[in-house]
Amino acid sequence: MKYDIGIVGLGYVGLTFATALADLGFSVLGIEKRKDIVDLTNSGKPHFSEAGLESIMRHVTRSGQLKAVQALTPEDECDIYVITVGTPLDENGNAQLDYIRSATREVADNMPDGALVILRSTVKIGVSRNVVKPILEESGKSFHIAMCPERTLEGRAMQELRQLPQIVGADDAETRDRAVRFFYQLTRSVVQVGSLETAEIIKLVDNTYRDVQFGFANEVARICDVFGVNANEVISGGKFGYPRTDVALPGLVGGPCLEKDPHILTQSLAEMDVALDITPAARAVNENQPAETVRFIADRLSDRDRPAIALLGMAFKGIPATNDLRGSMSLKVLAALRAQIPDADIRLYDPVCSHAELREVADGATIVDSRSDAIAGADCMIIANNHPDFGAIPPVELREQLAEGGFIFDYWNHFSSHHPHEVGDAYYAVGNLRKAYR
Question: pTM higher than 0.85 for the full model?
Fold first, then answer.
């Protein structure tokens, strides 16, 4: 059967892109090795939480615009192939390219002459040219290759795919023109750049810039903790009405992009014998934060036997809400708690993640059904992501549900702008500890 587009990899990037294209009227074939995801897709059900995705998926799968299979065949011919597979970091922090190579070989073996191949995965600089292109060339077929990185925000992907400028990088005008015509059917805003490497770098720079911004915010929090002042007050007061300062608020910084892309950028330069300075330093600040802050929590709980700890918010972020646990720094907080307070009774709650999803990462912690179940009688309540539910109840009311002498530790400063009498003397936040780390 002939399809307009083949999407290789139906993870977060691939499935949202495939669904959006099918909703525009393209015939889309999704290729995914995992049978459970293929079955869910063909039944019109996403395998992750994303606003607006399921209703569109139901429509496009019922209409036949989107179909999923486990492997490409020569009979399933496509005009355009989009590679969206992951590039996870290995245990040494190096980006793996096994999925990229495998997906590219599958495309090369099955594509017709003249196909347009688009790489949308986040990769080290040079992968499009030095890894993907040679594999396609080995097929002996003619093709065009473009690098068009994905940049959507989880929780808003279905809107942003139609609104954000799409980056199109290619080495020649013919390929760029073809890719631009394709993306103009998705959005009226397309940015053309003159090489594959330019597009690769744009994606890495965009996410690394955010990581560096947050890294500096977390450094400000460390400064404020040392001197016993409120980082929220320092940051908010400093930028109010002052156009040359826009420091972010501190908090846990992770997720499938920010925990990975700075490492990929650093590795890309290391392979060229160039050492970056700011990028790895900011990433180190963000990665060290869980262990540093848990030391404060452990000190506060040192006089309690088997303290009960409520850890709220396990997904990597809460706004927009997601159930994505990939790269979540909440998991690093959990690991630090296990290491520093091994006898703690830890309870996990997330308003979006299912029990099944949390069981995969629980590390012996108890999974509970509600915020109230988590914090009832707890010695410490930790707010680990910025889901709005966690800031909806006044801290005084939250404290009443804790054990006597219990306290709140808030990574996201939900209540740091409140008057001191509202939060009491048992509320601590990143950048608002009122004492130094030990």
Answer: yes
DSSP state of 433: -
pLDDT tens, 84-98? 999 999 887 788 999
Cα gap 180→177, rounded to integer Å: 5
- Conformational region of residue 68, where left means phi above 0, alpha means psi within -120 to 50, and beta covers everything else: beta
Instruction: Find, among 374, 417, 429, 424, the residue nearest to 395 by Cα.
Output: 424
> What are phi and psi for residue 77, nearest 5 degrees?
-85, 140
**What residue ranges of the chain are covered by domains with CATH 3.40.50.720?**
2-196, 229-429
Residue 312 above 50 pLDDT? yes
- Round the CA-based radius of gyration of the chain to a whole number and report it: 24
Q: Would you give the DSSP letter of residue 350?
A: -
Kindly report the backbone phi and psi dihedral angles of residue 176, in degrees, each rounded to the nearest multiple of 5, phi listed first. Answer: -60, -45
- The reported pLDDT for the residue numbered 420 is 73
Tokens, residue 153 = 């925000």
Token pair in block for residue 102: 């495998």
How many CA atoms are closer than 13 Å to the CA of 151, on its beta-carbon side? 23
**pLDDT, position 438:** 40
Residue 435 binned pLDDT confidence (cut-offs 50, 70, 90): low
> Do 61 and 44 touch, CB atoms closer than 8 A?
yes
Q: 229-429 belongs to which CATH class? A: alpha beta
Distance CA 44, CA 66 (A): 9
Q: Which two tokens stand for residue 79?
A: 């005009």
Q: Which residues contact 316 (CB under 8 A, 6 or more apart)?
A: 252, 254, 255, 256, 322, 324, 325, 326, 327, 328, 329, 330, 385
Strand-pair partners of 119: 83, 147
Q: Is domain 2-196 annotated with CATH 3.40.50.720?
A: yes
- Burial of residue 237, with CB atoms counted within 10 A of its CB: 0-12 exposed, 13-18 middle, 19 or more buried: exposed
* Mean pLDDT value across the chain: 95
Average pLDDT over residues 235-260: 95
